[in-house]
Write a structure and sequence with these properties.
single chain; 10 strands; 42% helix; Arc Repressor Mutant, subunit A; seven-stranded mixed β-sheet; 19% strand; globular; Rossmann fold; alpha/beta; 207 residues
Length: 207
């Protein structure tokens, strides 16, 4: 089923989930509608209904969606009902910030290991974790059966790190390096580059 659903649809599900969680925490109501959800997110109600219809019928005509139930269903669809251990490669300024970011663990993602190849960084403590030698990465990933990794290294080193991660068995990579990575089929690669986002917004600005 997963291969039949457009990736752009999968990409909107966490956005719906986040909005629903906020609505649930507000505690004002038990149900919501695709119109209300769309109004919060700037997405048409028709698009929301179409996206959700790929996975079943979650709402009722006239009553909308039960918020807690839809949260539970989206978490199951996204396989968030259990925690995911994550490997972080790169112990520089960005890696330090990511290691200390509290938003990951509250959503089920736990950076449990940090790797670097810089002798000055190997062995230091970062958020109660010891930075490990990159040469230990393969054995650890295989032993702990880790599937997710974050790359926070310079662009010049990113492809080599990605190759190491794939060889070790990593299936999902989030890269902060400003370069497109090559990965074999079956390995998900996503990017977080604030410069690209800023450049996208300058199109709408007056110089």
């Amino acid at each position: 089923m997963a291969n039949d659903i457009p990736d752009i649809v999968i990409g909107r599900l966490p956005i719906y989930l986040r909005a629903l969680v906020y609505m649930d925490e507000e505690g004002d109501k038990v149900t919501t509608s695709s119109q209300e959800l769309g109004s919060r997110l700037g997405i048409s109600s028709a698009q929301i209904r179409k996206d959700l219809s790929h996975f079943g019928e979650f709402g009722k005509q006239g009553t909308g969606y039960h918020i807690k139930y839809l949260i539970e269903q989206l978490r199951q669809i996204l396989h968030l009902e259990h925690d995911w251990p994550v490997v972080l490669v790169g112990a520089g300024y960005l890696g330090h910030a990511l290691a200390h970011y509290q938003g990951f663990k509250h959503r089920g993602f736990h950076i449990n290991w940090i790797f670097d190849n810089n002798p000055d960084k190997i062995g230091i403590q970062m958020n109660n974790m010891e930075v490990r030698d990159i040469r230990e990465l393969d054995d650890l990933v295989r032993r702990e059966e880790v599937q997710m990794a974050i790359i926070a290294v310079p662009a010049s080193a990113a492809q080599n790190i990605a190759d190491m991660l794939v060889e070790a068995g990593i299936k999902s990579i989030l890269s902060y390096a400003p370069i497109n990575l090559k990965a074999p089929a079956g390995v998900q690669v996503r990017y977080s580059d604030p410069v690209i986002l800023l450049q996208r917004m300058t199109y709408y600005l007056e110089p």
